Amino acid sequence: MSQIAQLSEAEIEERFHVTGTLPVAFLLVGFARTYDQFSVSFGGAGEMMLTTVLDAQPAGDRLIFDCSGSADINERFLRSGRNVFSGRPGGIHVQFTTGQASEINYGGSKAFAVPLPKYIVRMQRRDTFRIETPLGRPLQFFGRMTDGGLLNVPAHDISVAGLGVTASALPDGLSSGDRLENCHFSLPDDDRELFFSATIRHVTPQVGRIGQQQWRIGLHFEDMPGIEENRIQRYIARVERERHELLA
Length: 248
Hints:
By secondary structure, this protein is an alpha+beta fold. The chain is 20% helix and 42% strand. It contains four helices and 16 strands. The chain starts with 8 loop residues before the first helix and ends with a helix.
């Protein structure tokens, strides 16, 4: 049984939280020093903008970050009461949520400030778990290839970092390193699809159980929003727990 199968959803969330004013501020200051970029989801319509952390001030309880280059987006952002930041500094998924922002002057330029987040979710590389998807409830992957063709294949495994899919016939021109756009799939019992881009990490021929030729294709998520990674993590935990209960 994998480590994640032994954790409840609450325990999974607690395990990856960085809490406390000083640890949170210390982590954010590090992101400011390395000019790490974050996407920010805000507003009821699911709007998004890109920003860079500028500073974190524990004494003043505030996080300072860049404005968007669009005045319209900035105006709408200032009306948002909940903002979800997600990024991959150093290749590690980081996510945190803040309240409403105010506009300030920082270093002679306009910037945004919000109270420091209560905690930061930081997913270490070693905590990326991969499971085989249930045969009875397969995940169906859709992606647009570089030549415009549609790749529609079932997934055989999944992690928060990517998918492994199986093709019975290899599309012409598909090769390692290709980037697939407009990718999407649905998790069981979810009424909202996940949308992202992906890069092909490998294309591996193999022989199936009844002797037929197949290809295993490894896909790496390129711009999966942090909130969607959380959905995948919860799905993985649920599948692992269900399998453990069947074996108990």
